[in-house]
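Any chance you'd type out a single protein's sequence alongside its tokenized fold?
>
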Amino acid sequence: MKNMFSLHCNLAQILANKEITPYKLSKETNERIGTIYKLANNDVEGARLPASLLANVCGYLDITLDELFTIVGNKKEGEQ
């Protein structure tokens, strides 16, 4: 059964707006570069995202979780 909703990570756009690279974010927050790139590439399905990671990213960028993620409704089969 397909999920009705999914998360979309807005990190790439936020980083671009703030002129910060994923590498810099990783170094400044001491978070794994691979995890930061997963977020930036919106590859969050099935990813482990600890609260501490989200708090570090949001705190460093001075954003809220609501700004970092958007909940997107998935279309049911047969809908356009």
